[in-house]
Design brief:
Chain B: This is Sodium symporter small subunit domain-containing protein. The complex is a heterodimer of chains A (618) and B (84). By secondary structure, chain A is mainly α. Helices cover 67% and strands 3% of the residues of chain A. Chain A is globular and about 80 Å long. The relative contact order of chain A is 0.17. Chain B has one domain. In chain B, the strands form two sheets. A two-stranded antiparallel ribbon of chain B has the order 1-2. The chains are: A mainly alpha (618), B mainly alpha (84). At the A-B interface, helix 5, helix 10, helix 11 and helix 13 of A face helix 1, strand 4 and helix 3 of B.
């Protein structure tokens, strides 16, 4: 069977599974629709949270980003996992005890203010909508790259699938499809990684392989990689740090706080039966996330080594007659010269996978010095030694451009894995994008139907009508998300950073103070949220334009790019959070304390007992 | 909610503080601030600072959450505020 047919079969089977689950898990009440009836097992919820959390970007792009950034890529690894420690200890159990369905509802009730809940709804909608654009385009990209259909058709198919289980099943349908999607995506990620780790190091566990010697030698994989990339003028892999240490620090902190404050992740913890379950469920979520996040750095380093080895035989890997890369221990030990005349790959002899990805435009070769060989190196290097060697070898500039996403997508082909593995990676990429999109849609539709329709416009709405409102707003949200995916605003690339910035600077501090500061009043909370949001948006818009409209940036007014201690706009969420806390406490000091019953409510939220009494209460 | 002169909430906060200190030390400490110094030590083929940033901190985060969940269960029972 050819690759295309197998891919259609595997992806089709995974879709049939999701639809089967959708039919089984229909939601009959608002409690089932918003919180899966509060009856999801903590391990199941952990798995669903992992699928919810790991997006197309985690699956397809993260390893490539780490491969490019080296050590500095650790900010994604630490930032996107460390947030779960904050979520588990500071937010999840208390929000579960509070026993309501949405994040804005907690903020509105705790700060006894419709203004507070409306500000929270706006933050939630902006954060979730910007995030979902990336997911919908991710669905389109995954379809077009793996199945050969147009990106538009891919988005329509994706919308139809999500529609089936999200509209009829609500949180219940989404939860159980996410479990299935997690299993598909994690196998798709780990199977190729195991094969590659085996080929390079003889160790089947990528996490250990990354710290092992190259098979048959006593040279460690990382030291070999460090040596090769340094020789070729790139930064040393295990120490490379784009930007300053301060920016690394603040960026990591922003991702952690943002992760803990993202509403579509928080609301997953409303679905478990008890406070105790909410605590352990966050741990299980991180276990399932860590399976991918500890594999990703191995995939990154190994794919990078493979790529260099493919185009430069001095690395010490050889392409066999069958076409796969195997280690040649003698050659690895020899540390041959990467600038030798016959080291670079002859273009006409390039492997099949390069030809295939050249057609997609993700891989490009340009023979600048006309020798018919591929020279892949850093031609803008500051390393004088590398520069001199390249010039002496007659290299006239880097000739290979590689899109970072290839590191994951072409991995099974580089390692010559069977076609079903390649098909599985396609199904995995789609599962990652669809599961995150569904979680975001749930956050959006519950904010609209529960916090706006029921909370603000029509408090006396019947349960049946609210359920209907939930389904209608879900359907509308899917159409809007699809439209945004089909017509992505020019700023799509910057939007995920914006979602984290908003979650970190407005939602996280407000929820945390609501639990940990009994005396925090509505004036303080509202002023804090607005101040945090404002400084973050101000800094981001200064760099990227007002609402990302080209030409409206005003970076010179704030003293040039990254003028705030060299911090990049993506990393600014933590500063926004700090401003939020400071403003909130300052305003709180000069205004009157919250009413007695609110302080009692905070005390009640802090202890687990009685969690069942308020279960599903409105 | 008084127990041996310490309140439930006070006990919870001191547990959270301890865990957050470790959380900070493994990621921002070992993974970022002290990583250059730790890189002179190897863990198998890993430079230690690099290992903390790309692997180690994640494993410790998992351990911290389960430790927290267990300790909180104990504290809940000690102060008799656990769920029925």
């Amino acid at each position: 069977m050819d690759l295309q047919t197998i891919t259609y079969l595997v992806v089709g089977a995974s879709f049939a599974l999701y639809i089967g689950i959708a039919i089984w898990a229909r939601a009959g009440s608002t409690s089932e629709f918003y919180a899966a009836g509060g009856s999801v097992h903590p391990v199941t919820n952990g798995m669903a949270t992992a699928a919810d959390w790991m997006s197309a970007a985690s699956f397809i792009s993260m390893a490539g980003l780490i491969a490019n950034m080296g050590y500095g890529g650790g900010l994604f690894l630490m930032g996107w996992t460390g947030g779960y420690v904050l979520l588990a200890m500071l937010l999840a159990p208390y929000l579960r005890k509070f026993g309501k369905f949405t994040v804005p509802q907690f903020i509105g009730d705790r700060f006894y203010s419709k203004t507070a809940s409306t500000v929270a709804v706006i933050c939630l909608l902006v954060a979730s909508l910007t995030y979902i654009i990336g997911q919908m385009t991710g669905v389109g990209v995954a379809f077009s790259r793996f199945l050969g259909v147009s990106s538009e058709a891919g988005i329509y198919i994706g919308m139809a699938i999500v529609f089936m289980y999200a509209v009829f099943g609500g949180m219940k349908g989404i939860t159980y499809t996410q479990v299935a999607q997690y299993i598909v995506l994690i196998s798709a990620y780990i199977v190729p990684a195991i094969f590659i780790s085996l080929q390079l190091t003889g160790n089947p566990l990528p996490q250990l392989g990354l710290g092992s010697n190259i098979a048959g030698t006593d040279t460690s994989l990382l030291s070999k990689l460090d040596m090769i990339v340094t020789d070729l003028g790139f930064s040393e892999y295990t120490t490379a740090l784009p930007g300053s240490t301060l920016n690394y620090f603040v960026y990591t902190m922003s991702l952690m706080i943002g992760t803990a404050g993202l509403p579509h992740v928080i609301m997953r913890f409303f679905t478990v039966p008890t406070v105790k379950d909410a605590r352990s469920s966050a741990g299980w979520a991180l276990v399932f996330i860590a399976l991918l996040y500890t594999t990703a750095p191995a995939v990154a380093a190994m794919a990078k080594l493979n790529l260099h080895a493919t185009v430069n035989n001095a690395v010490g890997l050889e392409t066999t007659a069958a076409g796969n890369l195997v280690v040649n221990p003698e050659r690895v030990k020899a540390n041959a010269d990467v600038y030798a005349a016959d080291a670079s790959l002859v273009y006409e002899q390039r492997p099949e996978w390069m030809k295939r990805w050249e057609k997609t435009g993700l891989l490009k070769f340009e023979d600048k010095n006309g020798d018919g060989r591929i020279q892949y190196y850093n031609d803008a290097t500051k390393n004088a030694d590398a520069k001199a060697k390249a010039e002496a070898a007659g290299w006239k500039g880097n000739e290979l451009t590689v899109n970072a996403d290839i590191m994951v997508m072409a991995n099974p082909e580089i390692a010559l894995l069977p076609n079903w593995v390649i098909a599985l990676v396609a199904a995995g990429g789609l599962a990652a994008a669809l599961s995150t999109a569904a979680g975001l849609l749930m956050a959006i539709s519950s904010a609209v139907s529960h916090d706006l329709v029921k909370g603000v416009f029509n408090p006396n709405i019947s349960e049946k009508n609210e359920l209907m409102a939930g389904k209608v707003s879900m359907a509308v949200a899917i159409v809007i998300a699809g439209w945004l995916g089909l017509n992505p605003p020019g700023f799509a690339a910057g939007t995920v950073a914006l979602a984290f910035g908003i979650a970190a600077s407005s939602l996280f501090p407000a929820i945390m103070m609501g639990i940990f500061s009994k005396k925090m009043n509505k004036e303080g909370a509202i002023a804090g949220m607005l101040a945090g949001l404002f400084v973050t948006l101000f800094y981001v818009f200064a760099h990227k334009g007002i609402f990302f409209i080209k030409g409206t940036d005003f970076v010179n007014l704030i003293g040039g790019p990254n003028s705030f201690f060299g911090i990049t706009p993506e990393a600014f969420g933590a500063i926004g959070a700090l401003v939020n806390f400071i403003v909130a406490f300052a305003v709180d000091k000069v205004t009157k304390e919250p009413p007695e019953h609110i302080q009692h409510m905070v005390e009640a939220v802090r202890i687990p007992r009685g969690s069942k009494a308020v279960d599903g209460a409105h | 909610m008084e127990h041996n002169g310490k309140t439930y909430w006070g006990t919870v906060l001191s547990l959270l503080t301890k865990i957050l200190i470790i959380w900070f030390l493994v990621s921002f400490g070992a993974g970022i601030l002290f990583a250059p110094a730790l890189n002179s030590i190897s863990l198998g083929g890993y430079p230690l600072g690099f290992w903390f940033a790309h692997q180690g901190s994640i494993y410790i985060f998992i351990a911290l959450i389960f430790y927290y969940a267990k300790k909180m269960g104990d504290i809940d029972r000690q102060f008799d505020v656990h769920e029925e």
